[in-house]
Every structure is written in C-alpha cells, then in structure tokens.
Amino acid sequence: MAKAAEPPSGTRDFLADDVRRRKAAFDTVSAVFERYGFDPLETPAFERLEVFAGKLGDDASALIFKILKRGVHEASGEADLALRYDHTVPLARVIGTYGSKLPAPYKRYVIGPVWRADRPAQGRFREFVQCDLDTVGSSSPLADAETLWAINDALIALGVEDFRFLVNSRQALHGLLEAYGIPEEAGAKVLGSLDKLDKATPDAVIAELADRGLATGTAESLVGDVVAADTDRIRKQLDTTERGRAGLAEVDKLLELTAGLPSGRVVFTPRMVRGLDYYTGPIFEVSAAGYPGSISSGGRYDGLVAKLGGPDMPACGGSIGLERILAGQAAADAETGGLDVALTVLGAEDEVLRLANRLRARGLRTGVYLGTSGKLARQLKWANDQRARTVLIYGPAEQEAGEVTVRDMASGDQTRVALDDVPAHLRP
Questions:
Q1: Residue 284 CB contacts under 8 Å (≥ 6 apart), including other chains
Q2: What end-to-end distance do the CA atoms of the chain give, in Å?
Q3: Residue 25 near residue 31, CB atoms below 8 Å
Q4: How far apart (Å, rounded) are the C-alpha atoms in residues 50 and 365?
Q5: Residue 109: strand, helix, or coil
Q6: pTM of the prediction?
Q7: N or C end of the chain: which has fewer CB within 10 A?
C-alpha cells in the first residue's frame, strides 16, 4: 500500500465493525456514569497554548501538538494553539471559567480523543480516546469510594470479569519513607524502585535500592514489608509515623466504603505507587486477567486543579483504559454489525422501497440491494457479505402471488409470507 493511502503515523482508520463496537463501549460506560450522577462534558479539540504551557511538566510538554499561527502571522513559525493533550487541563479551565454556574461539587465524565506528539509504537498512538470521571469540590471519602464503585460497574458492563482494585495512599507511602528514615530528596527514586515489584523480583529491587544509597539491610526490610503475604508488617511500620497513620486511615476508610463489592475486589497493595507529582491521598490501579498492565487508575489529587489554572479545590477521579480493553476483546466480538434484513431487487422497486421503510419504522436495520445485477445468486452473496440475518426475496413469482420469500441466512430455511404481513412476521 502506498504511504499516501495509509493514515498518518500513530493514527488509525476504524471501519464499520470497529466503529460500532467502540460506540457501543462508549455508550455502555456513559450509561453507567450517568446512573452515578456524573454529567457529560465536551471541550474543544484544541485549546490556547498557554492553557497547557508550563502545567504538564517538561516530558509531557514536549508531546504537545502545537498549531502554528495563521494568516499574516503564519510566517513567524510561532504557535498559539495546541491539540488537547488530556482531559484534566480542560477540566480545570472549565471550572475556572464557569465557576458558580456549575454544581457543587462538580461531577463530570468525558470520553473523547486526545493527541500526543509521541513516537508511534506497538500499542502507542498519537491519537486515542481517554475516558475520565472526576469529582471536584469534595474532600469526602465518599467521593473516592464512589469513583471505585462507578468504575467497577462500568468494567462489568464492558464484559471485564476477573479484576481487582489495587489501592494505596500517597500519605501511606510518605509515612513509609519516614518510618525507614529515608530522606525526602531520595523518596521519589525509592518509591519508583518499589513500583517495579509487579514486574521485577524482590532481589532485583533490593539491589536497585542499594545502588540508590540505601543500606542493604534497610532495603531488604523495606521490600520484605511491602511484598509480605499479609499487610500486618507494613501496618506496624506505618503506625510509627503520623503520615503513615493518616494514610492507613485513608486506605481503611476506602476498604470500608467498598466492602459491598465482591470479596477480594479491593485490596490494600503497599507496593503500588503512581502519580508522584500530583496525587495527594488514596490511589488505585485495576489489574484484570487477560489484559496487560492496568486497565484503570486514579486517585485523589487535591491541589492539582489550582496548579492547572483553576481554583484551589479538592478533587478525585479515575480513568478507564477503553482503548486497552477494546484491543483485548476477543476477535469474534468485533463482528457486532450486520443487517437485520436484506431486500433483493428483482423488479417492483417501488414495492421494495415501501417494504424497506416499513421495516425501518419497526427498528430493523434494513438494506436494499443497490447493485446492477439482476441475478439472485449475486444478490444473496451481497446479503451474506452484509452479514444479514434475514433476506427477503420478492421476485416475479412472489409478486404475482402477493407474497415474499423470507430466507433465514443462518439455517437456509425459507418461508412464504403475505407482503402486508412481513413487518409483523420479522422480530426487531
């Protein structure tokens, strides 16, 4: 295939089956979030560049797709707009813009594309859909718990079955560092090493911590506490510091408020680390059988809205990796389209169109053969290509009798039905 015929690097074309499958997933998640009282939000595909500038960190800022100035300013090579990098920065702008016009607290969800000027690779795209839900303006632990409940219901509705919420607390992580006497300046690197325990062996992490300057005994004790089969050891360590106790209280409250979920669905996971720059309280990730990495994540991020240009308000939320989930769905599930009814055209075009419109009025997805062949075999092949459930044959013999031949494409069975009775004969 010629390069010009391919979509731009890092983007994808979605044909009919994929479009329907994706739309069904988006609608499914939206319906769940609506039941929880989250309001939909849509923001422009691009923002003023200053909305993102200086608010994402150096690494993320380098991935912003910038839009050059237009008109008389085009020759300057300067940018004044940027494609939407994420949905969190626009959320902060919306809160700052509309203020008191929004409900308090403000609960919103968004499912829409974002763009990253990243280097494309397997599973890494420059254009992809993010699915976020957030509660802004509430410091209640109920808001954190509701995030987990809503995501739980959404994942079940998407057909994800075997999954767990791994929960921790940023306060608990800081308390753990204090309990081991690890200085603040070394904390981020130490926690980064601990976060590798889901992929690396404990011995490898201990060696890395030793390379970072921790005494071998301290590194062994720290890793041992974090990976212990039960959480009693880590709880004893956290109980020795004020921040550790505060973090444990956050975790235990979240466990209490999600106790109604299936047993083992929400698990305190001391090794889990995420969002060192912005999470401030409870944090979580979702791991699921059959899916690589996490398929959902989030936490509390008090202070981030203000950092991103909005008012200083508490907030929490989460994201569902819809792209990852959709990619992991079984290939057989992709074929969600197809016609309910396919109508052949063997004369009497006006009757065929009237019948098609009557079927559509009943909610049946109905297609009429629009090709030039008058051969039934060619038209049946078209119906098969359309994955039609039922084919209606209205040839000369049927027209003379005032009947239609109804063919079941799965079994090949055929039935003659009076023309006027066809809509009632076919189930939606």
A1: 148, 165, 166, 167, 168, 272, 296, 297, 298, 299, 318
A2: 41
A3: no
A4: 47
A5: strand
A6: 0.83
A7: N
